[in-house]
Amino acid sequence: MDQKAADFIREQLTSISWDDITEKHLYALHYGYSVAECLWMRDGSQISLDETRGGIRVRNRRRFRFDADYNLRLITWGDQMTGEVMPDRKFWTFSVGADHHDDPYGKGLGYWLYWLTYFKRNDMRVWLRYLEKFSQPTVAVEYPAGMPANEQDKLLKAAHSVLNASAVKIPQGAGLSFLEAARSGTADYQALWDTCNAGISKVILSETMTLDSGSSRSQAEVHQTVVQSVIKGDADLICQSFNCSVVRWLIDWNFPGAAYPTVWRKTEQPGDLKTQADRDRILFDMGFIPSANYIQETYGDGFAPPSADTPSALNGAQLDSILKIVDAIETKNLTTDVGQELIMLVVPTVSSDIAVRIANAPSAAPTNGSAPPSTLPLEK
Predict the structure, then answer these.
(1) Measured between alpha carbons, how far is 201 from 194 in angstroms, rounded to an integer?
(2) Residues paired with 138 in a beta bridge
(3) Residue 363, exposed/middle/buried by CB under 10 A (0-12, 13-18, 19+)?
(4) What pTM did the predictor assign?
(5) Which of 31, 49, 32 is nearest to 40 (CA)?
(6) Each residue of 67-93: pLDDT tens digit?
(7) What is residue 377's predicted lDDT score, i.e. its pLDDT?
(8) Neighbour-count burial of 265, counting CB atoms closer than 10 A to its CB (0-12 exposed, 13-18 middle, 19+ buried)
(9) Dihedral sign (CA 114, 116, 118, 121)
(10) For 346-375, how does the pLDDT look when each residue is reduced to its tens digit (9 = 90+)?
(11) How many other CB atoms are there within 10 angstroms of residue 185's CB atom?
């Protein structure tokens, strides 16, 4: 039943857009919480996610509220203040960032990014005004006292056209001049911009050197490990939330009493297979035999365990043990029967006929120091 439950959850995930759902649900990291609606259907005698309607739909978080008992409520036209209580096991809520369990809304990255983003935007606004002043000076208009207001407006209109027109006409006695901004040194707009960007990167990624230019490769690699830790942490958070809600609901309905399967997203980067294979070879020579599951998880599909009829090579520890047993039989320290039993213990896959041939090999070998015959069973 446990295996059937796990297979059922696997089928549910493959029938829906799991990556798209988790991508939208992970915006809870920015806003503090997210709400997704589970669309159920009956599939024969089972209750499953309705794949024809998407299975799980992430809804607009602004449409929901939590009451004092942490019940989820939906804001409707009939109740726009407190909202209507939603049924149990219908919505999958995901909350992050709060430093206690009494805040169902969480505290997203947007809380920490607010002032950095605010200063960055205002810095850009003032910076652009600064560049405008220095690249295009202000036109000053001088007019004689007593000039009528309509003539002043015409003169101001002529001043505006100075910036775009190659020639203008002004009344006699009036003058135009340019007011240029005078400043020594450099403005710190770039420094503030870079500081805000670095702060935003640290809030979101917990590091900066994978984005900034000028970092060394060693520094970037160290910071990349920090990014991978953040990615794994975010993936574990949403998978744990899914396991404690949707997975349990489906198993309770369809496989009551079965163990709850768990869903985890593998975020680790693939390692160097050659280094892994060299390490596995050393362990194999020491006598450790890898399982079929380990081979498949490490090296992928395409490998099958050897059958009973398939001859397998001896590892270094087994071969060394057999040679010592044969030497002990030859020196009369072991009887042939005992040696045969030991060989079968060292190599469980060897047949009794082969073990007898190996145990009797010393008595069949020539004693005049010549090379052993080519039919010695050790070669096989």
Answers:
(1) 10
(2) 179
(3) exposed
(4) 0.62
(5) 49
(6) 999 999 999 998 888 899 999 999 999
(7) 45
(8) middle
(9) negative
(10) 777 777 788 788 878 765 544 444 444 433
(11) 5
- Would strands 33-38 and 56-59 be described as parallel, antiparallel, or unpaired? antiparallel
What residues are paired with 49 via a beta bridge? 40
Q: Give the integer Cα–Cα distance in Å for 219 and 216.
A: 5
CA 11 to chain centre: 22
Q: Over the stretch 48-60, which tens digit does the pLDDT of each residue have?
A: 999 999 999 999 9
Written as one string, the DSSP assignment of 21-51 is HHHHHTTHHHHSEEEEEE-EEEETTEEEE-G
Tell me which range, 33-47, 270-284, 314-328, is most confidently predicted by mean pLDDT: 33-47
**Residue that is written with structure tokens 């935003």 in the block:** 200
What backbone torsions phi and psi does residue 99 show, to the nearest 5 degrees?
-95, 10
H/E/C letters for each residue in 167-230?
CCCCCCCCEEEEECCCCCCCCCHHHHHHHHHHHHHHHHHCCCCCCCCCCCHHHHHHHHHHHHHH
Contacts of 354 (CB under 8 A, 6+ apart): 377, 380
Residue pLDDT, tens place only, 178-219: 655 555 555 688 889 989 998 998 888 886 666 666 556 666
CB 95 within 8 A of CB 32: yes
For the chain, how many helices (H) and strands (E)? 14, 10
Beta strands in the chain (DSSP E): 33-38, 40-43, 46-49, 56-59, 64-66, 72-74, 84-85, 91-95, 138-142, 175-179
Q: Strands 91-95 and 40-43, how do they pair? A: unpaired
Residues 74, 75, 81: CA angle, nearest 5 degrees? 125
Distance CA(107)–CA(99), nearest Å, equals 8
Residue 289, token pair as written in the block: 């035999």
Structure tokens at 123: 């810095």
DSSP state of 270: P
